[in-house]
Amino acid sequence: MRTERYNNIMRRVNHCNKSTLFRVLRFLSTETKILKEFNEIPGPISLPLVGTLYQYFPVFGKYKFDRLHHNGLTKLRQYGPVVREDIVPGVSIVWIFKPEDIEMLYRKEGRYPERRSHLALQKYRLSKPDVYNTGGLLPTNGKEWWRLRKAFQKHLSKVQCIKGYVNSTNTVVGEFIDRRIRREGRTDDFSPELSRLFLELTYYIAFDKRLQQFKDKEWDSNSESSKLIKAAHDINSAILKTDNGPQLWRKFETPMYKSIKKGHEHIEKIALKVVSEKLTSIKTTDSKTSLLGEYLSSDETDYKDVVGMTVDTLLAGIDTVMLIVRLNSLVVKTIIKRTDD
Ligand code: HEM
After folding, report:
1. Which UniProt keywords apply (predicted)?
2. Which residues, including other chains, have CB under 8 Å from residue 169's CB and lie 6 or more apart?
3. Over the chain, what is the mean pLDDT?
4. Ligand 1 neighbour 312 (Cβ under 6 A)
5. Is residue 201 a contact partner of residue 171, using CB atoms and an 8 Å limit?
6. Which of 55, 83, 109 represents a domain boundary (last residue)?
C-alpha cells in the first residue's frame, strides 16, 4: 500500500515536474517517516503571478537572493527539514537540509543527476554553436553531461597527471610567498591577493602558461589578470540572481545577462586564443604532456568541448578556492581566539 502510494505520487511528480528545481524522488524526511503528497510539503506562501518573490524584496523581504545560507536557516527553523517553495508559479524548489535526505536524493538520482543552475550561462553558450557544443559542465544534464564529465575527469583523476603539476604548483606558490607575502606594507584584506594566486594556479593548469607572475603592475585594474578576475567574478555573482527570480533574461537582455555576456566574451577570447595556440604546438611538436594537450588529443572530446571546459575551469577556479581559504582562516582565527579566552 505504501509502495503503491509512493509510486502514485512519483508518477504525478515526474509527470508535472518539468520546471521543478529538484527532481524530488521521495518526500519522506528521514526524521518523520511520514510519506507526504507534494503539495503537503510545508513552505512559504506562494502568491499568484509573483510566487514567493515578494519575500525577496529588498528591505522588507524576509529572504535575500545572495544570502542563500540565511534563507535556508530561516526556512529550516520555520518549516522543518523538507521545505517546498513555488518561487514563481510553475517553478518549485524543494529544500532539503538533513545529510541523510541529501544522501538519499543522490542515491536515487543514479548516473545522471538533475541540476538546475547556470541557466543564463547556458543560454549564452547555446546561442554560439560555432564556439560551444553545450552549455558546459554545470548546466548540462543527462547523457551529454556524462559524456563531457567522463572525458574530462579521466585525465584529471590520474595520479600521473597530478604529479605533473606538483613542481609547477610549488614554483607558483613559492613566488607568491616571496613577492606578495614577504613584501612590506600589507593590507588587512588579503582576498585580492588570494584571487591572484588561485588565478595563476588555475591559468597555469588550464593553459600550461603563466599569466602574471605576481608583478606589481598586475594590480592595476586594466591589467590582464585584473580583467580576468573581474570577468569571472561578474559572471559568478550573476548566476544565483539569474537562476532564481522571474528570469526576464529569457525574453530580453537584462543588465544581469549583459554582465554574464560581457564577462564571458572576455574569458572566451582568451580561451580561444590559448587553446588554438596549444593545438598548433601539439601539431608541430607532437607533445600532449599537459592536461590541455591530453584533452585536445582525445577522441572523446572535440575542440569546442575543450574551449567550454577551459572557460568553466577559469570560472570555477578563482573565487571558489579564495572563498574556502578565507572561510578556513576565519575558522582557525575563531579557534585561536577561543583557546586564548
Ligand atoms: C574549494 C573550492 C571549490 C569548491 C567549494 C567547489 C564546489 C563545487 C560544487 C559544490 C560543485 C557541484 C555543483 C553541482 O553539481 O551542482 C562543483 C562543480 C564543479 N567544479 Fe568546483 N569547487 C571548488 C573548486 C574548483 C576548482 C579549483 C575547479 C577548477 C579548476 C572547479 C571546477 C568545477 C567544475 C568544472 C564543476 C562542474 C562539474 C560537473 O558538473 O560535472 N572547482 N564545484
Report:
1. Heme, Iron, Metal-binding, Monooxygenase, Oxidoreductase
2. 201, 204
3. 84
4. yes
5. no
6. 109
Does the Cβ of 324 fall within 6 Å of ligand 1? yes
Neighbouring C-beta atoms of residue 71, cutoff 10 Å:
19
* Atom 42, ligand 1: residue with shortest CA distance: 316
Burial of 129 (C-beta count, 10 Å sphere; 0-12/13-18/19+): exposed
What is the identity of the amino acid at 24?
A: V
Distances (CA, A) of 99 to 29, 77, 239: 11, 16, 25
Q: How many domains does the chain have?
A: 2
Residue nearest to atom 28 of ligand 1 (CA): 317
- Tell me the backbone φ, ψ of residue 160, rounded to 5 degrees: -55, -40
Element (H, E) at 96: strand 91-96
The Cα 127–Cα 116 span in angstroms is 18
Whether residue 131 sits in one domain with residue 59: no
CA-nearest residue, atom 4 of ligand 1: 320
**Cβ 300 vs Cβ 150: under 8 Å:** yes
Same domain, yes or no: 230 and 327: yes
Q: 152 CB contacts (<8 Å, ≥6 apart)? A: 137, 295, 301, 309
Range of the domain at 134: 119-340
* Grid cell of 227 as nine digits: 580583467
What is the pTM for the complete model shown?
Answer: 0.80
Of 109, 132, 150, which marks where a domain is finished? 109
Distance, CA 194 to ligand 1 centroid (Å)? 18
| Statement to judge: residues 185 and 248 lie in one domain | yes
Residues 162 and 64 in one domain: no
Residue 50 shares a structural domain with residue 87: yes
Ligand 1, atom nearest to 324 Cα:
1
Residue among 71, 17, 68, 20 nearest 44 (CA): 71
Residue-wise pLDDT for 295-315, tens only, equals 888 899 999 999 999 999 989
The tens digit of pLDDT for each residue in 14-56 reads: 333 433 334 444 454 555 566 778 989 999 999 998 899 899 8
